[in-house]
């Protein structure tokens, strides 16, 4: 059973990552500041991710949207921190955003699993 959950997490994570990073890259290519690009792609990504994560990965669509949004506020700060460090090191915002994908995804998964979509004990 855990293997199926893991496969769903990976598949939905790939889908959500492609969606979110695609938005981020598009905003950067439109010459938006990396903070605004991250903010907009995060907001739009949250709307897309809420249902995919809750229904497909955790099989729980009775979660708190507020907690889900707070998770992505935290993920936003993780993401811009990586982009900022990259910029300080002379790396482009596109590369910094790509590097931020894994720690952002890990943060999102852990907070969603144990805080947002946790299973209630009967």
Task: Based on the model shown, name its key terms.
single chain, 122 residues, mainly alpha, 82% helix, elongated
Write a compact overview of the structure shown.
The protein has 122 residues and is mainly α. The protein has four helices and no strands.
- When the domains are counted, the total is 1
Whole-number mean pLDDT: 87
Give a short account of the largest sheet. none
How widely separated are the two ends?
A: 20 Å
Structural category: mainly alpha
Percent range for β-strand residues: under 5%
Listing every helix as H and every strand as E from the N terminus to the C terminus, the arrangement reads: HHHH
Q: Looking at the structure, what is the overall shape?
A: elongated
Rg estimate, integer Å = 15 Å
Description:
It is built from 4 helices and no strands. It is mainly alpha-helical and 122 residues long. It has one domain. The radius of gyration is 15 Å and the shape is elongated.
Fold blueprint:
Elements: H1 2-29, H2 34-57, H3 65-88, H4 93-116
Helix pairs in contact: 1-2, 1-4, 2-3, 3-4
């Amino acid at each position: 059973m855990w293997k199926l959950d893991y496969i769903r997490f990976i598949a939905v994570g790939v889908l959500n990552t492609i969606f979110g990073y695609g938005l981020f890259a598009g905003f950067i290519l439109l010459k938006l500041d990396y903070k605004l690009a991250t903010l907009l792609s995060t907001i739009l990504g949250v709307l897309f991710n809420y249902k995919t994560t809750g229904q497909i990965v955790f099989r729980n669509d009775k979660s708190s949207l507020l907690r889900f949004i707070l998770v992505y506020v935290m993920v936003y700060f993780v993401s811009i921190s990586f982009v900022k460090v990259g910029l300080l090191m002379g790396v482009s915002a596109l590369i910094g955003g790509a590097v931020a994908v894994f720690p952002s995804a890990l943060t999102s998964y852990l907070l969603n699993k144990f805080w947002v979509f946790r299973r209630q004990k009967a």
